[in-house]
Amino acid sequence: MSKGMNYGLFRDTPGEPNGRSVAVVGAGPSGMAASGYLACQGYRVEMFDKMPKPGGLLYFGIPDVRLPMDRIEAAARRLVEHYGVVFHPRVKVVGEGEDVHDEGDELVQETVVLEDLRRRFDAVLLCTGSWRSRRMGIPGEDLPGVLSGLEYLFPLRGAACTKDICVADAAGKRVAIVGGGLSAVDAADCALRSNAEKVYMLYRRTSNEAPAGPYEVALLHDRGMVWKELTLPVRILGQDRVEALEYIQCSLGEPDESGRRCPIPESGSNKVIEVDMVITAVGEMPTVPAADRVELAKVRKQATGWPRMTPMEGVFLAGDALNGPSKIGWAVTSGLEAARSMEEWLDWSANRV
Fold first, then answer.
1. Which residues contact 268 (CB under 8 A, 6 or more apart)?
2. pLDDT confidence of residue 145
């Protein structure tokens, strides 16, 4: 197996069975890390994921050029074949009476109610990730030809799993990508590789403040990407589909709560570029089943009865579902911390009886 993708972190064989069973919802990096840890501790682990293959956005949101899919597949296969983790694909876990559509749900074949899952297992860990894209909230955002970063990147691998998913073809098109994170960088990279006629990246700050960093931006610029910094989209233009993007120039003011200088629009500096496709990679939001009962904000503030546990007793949170989009290492760490907290809670619960 490829180096660096082994989620059985603590021992070479599964732990001696301890008679407890746990459900891990979400098979991204936090879910696989938690599953590996718990399997090593002797738990019977079952993973549920709405995708047909384990990996989450690690597999379906990151292009092969950045992270080869065979490394992810090998890590998941080792969990199943070597550590005995049971994987349930194309299953979405929802709250009771919940009917919410998120990106990637096209591949779902079955839904399971979280409350029923909790009754079947000793504990449940939610690692459901961030599958809901943020919107810019500007006119024209609903025009055909406007896609979120996930809507553009997900089908590049998802289309291999079903004929019902179509890949948005950027070949010969003028593409504007809004955002400065790794999703925006990946979208620009894929558009360039698809032989787009022109690729623009628009970001409200400079490359020095971009989450992806100036190095990634420079690499794309060397390949022909047009970098437009200190720009804020205000309107997408077109009749039946995208025809142009209007933006306003910004300057940087005082730092905001993130510590980065705040972009300030400059009145009268509006400009328009003609484009055929707009990809808005401006972030994603956590997608948690039974959100009203899970109370994400309370778990983040550690205002519940046990670290990482929700107000639903025995239901825990980890990864991007808890903290929002993050880097792979942070997601893995979050999964391990939540799994350890779950284990301590189960031990405590057994001793209080």
1. none
2. 97
Tokens for 34, please give them. 């938690």
Residue 353 pLDDT: 59
What are the φ and ψ backbone dihedral angles of 153, each rounded to 5 degrees? -80, -40
DSSP for 228-248 reads EESEEEEEEE-SSS--EEEEE
As a 3-state breakdown, the chain gives helix, strand, coil percent values, each rounded to 5, of 30, 25, 45
- DSSP tag of 306: S
- Beta strands 277-280 and 271-274: pairing type? unpaired
Phi, psi angles (nearest 5°) of residue 193: -70, -20
By the 10 Å C-beta count (0-12 exposed, 13-18 middle, 19+ buried), 171 is classed as exposed
pLDDT of residue 2: 44
Residue 25 pairs with which residues in a beta bridge?
48, 126
- Rg, Å, the chain Cα set: 22
Using an 8 Å Cβ cutoff, are 145 and 241 in contact?
Answer: yes
- Identify the CA nearest to 139 among candidates 244, 294, 229, 271: 244
Domains and CATH numbers, the chain: 21-131+284-352 (3.50.50.60), 135-280 (3.50.50.60)
* Pairwise CA distance, residues 36 & 11, whole Å: 10
Cβ-contact 56, 284 below 8 angstroms: no
> How many H helices and E strands in the chain?
11, 18
Residues 148/280, Cβ–Cβ less than 8 Å:
yes
Residue ranges of the chain whose pLDDT lies below 50: 1-2
Q: Are 101 and 111 in contact (CB under 8 A)?
A: no
Specify the pairing of strand 123-126 against strand 21-25. Answer: parallel
